[in-house]
Amino acid sequence: MPLIDIKTVGFPKTLLAGEVKKATLTISNKGQKALVRLRVRLSHPSFVFFGRKEDLEQDIYQRASVETLPSMSKMEAPNRLSDPTTLVLQLPEHDGVACLQPGETTTVPVWIRGDRVGSFNFQFLFSYEAEVRCA
User: Are the CB atoms for 101 and 94 separated by under 8 Å?
Assistant: First the structure.
């Protein structure tokens, strides 16, 4: 079976209301099989945004593409129903299959925003499946 190891770097201990801080999530597969369909369930989804590996060098996050016109701007965003507390995390592709091979590590950027004033305890629950065909 796969065995996931998660490490966080740069998660802030305190945030001001509206402040955004970037951190990273390092995901390693220490098991003997590849893992697929990595999901995370969040206790406070409005505080957290997970990016893609390609976004590691960016200081800000962007959920939709923006096209600028002379007098106005147009924003295109996906319009689909989803559960905001459960998210699918991006994994590297191997032969067309998104999976994390045994011994492989990937890093994902995470932006944390002070959505509300108060003291919060953030809980993350990760789930994944074993992939037999990913080799």
Answer: yes
